[in-house]
Amino acid sequence: MNRGNFPQNLTQVEFGCLLQNMSKGWRGIACLARLEFMTINYETNICVYCGSRDGLTRDHVPPKLLFPKPRPSDLITVPCCIDCNQLFQIDDSYFRTVITLTYDTGKHPEAQKSWGSEFRALQREESKAYRKAVFGKAQPAKIVHPDQTESPTAAIPIDCLRICRFAQRTVLGLFFHVKGYRLADIYTPRIFMNPFSPRTLSFSKFLAKEFDGEPKTIGKGVFAYHVKWFEEESLWILWFYEALPLICLVGPKS
User: Fold this and answer.
1) Which helix (H) or strand (E) holds 150?
2) Is the separation of the CB atoms in 56 and 47 below 8 Å?
């Protein structure tokens, strides 16, 4: 039987049953729904985030602005519609601002290489509203060094919603990169634990011991990811500058 362009994970028996039941009332509806689900999710020319087929471009996962020039040749890209691509731009910029200026991650040599481009972006006239939103509520703070000496600094409140959106989008893109198809709409990634807590860093290092193999690294310590699969669900650890872990669980929405 010629299966044409139907998804390859549909077995021969399933495909035959679909053809036999497509005109049999509610069983036909169920079969068509099954066929539509499999076809949509196994398309490669589709936005991995919203499922749109219109105005497709390529999206870097994670965003390429995290990587200082010259950028590595193995950056990950996935199909993405223009609307989603533009929607992510502020979240991407915010995430880079936060992690390149945060004490633990900002010490990384690759993060320091991004300081110049980050400061130039912040000084642009069109960034005035963005500067105010990010730094307008900064408060005086202190950094306590290992030798117990202190240095003055400023602390900015973290926009947790933006961080969660960034993590969710990154996992959706990586899922497509690893599996070759979109994550089904009945599943969603959720961030687990505050990534800026020291407890999250120690827990992530402990958790990583339970994963198989070594994490996939891109750039000189800029980004790495580890994934453990549990049938349709999965657990991800996203490492940024070897010091900031985002732990994400992928499971049913409900």
Assistant:
1) strand 150-155
2) yes
CA dist 96 to 7, 122, 220, 225, Å?
38, 11, 16, 17
At 222-242, the pLDDT tens digits run 999 999 999 779 999 999 999
Q: Taking residues 53-75, what's their average pLDDT?
A: 95
Helix, strand and coil content of the chain, in percent to the nearest 5, comes to: 45, 20, 35
Closest C-alpha to 242, from 69, 71, 66: 66
**Residue 157 pLDDT exceeds 70:** yes
Q: What is the bridge-based pairing of β-strands 150-155 and 139-144?
A: antiparallel
Q: What is the pTM of this model?
A: 0.80
- CA–CA separation, 120 and 15 (whole Å): 56
- pLDDT, one tens digit per residue, over 109-152 is 999 998 888 888 888 888 899 888 888 888 888 877 778 888 88
CA distances (Å), 9 to each of 67, 182, 186, in order? 36, 14, 18
Strand-pairing partners, residue 139, are 155
- The span from the CA of 184 to the CA of 4, in Å, is 22
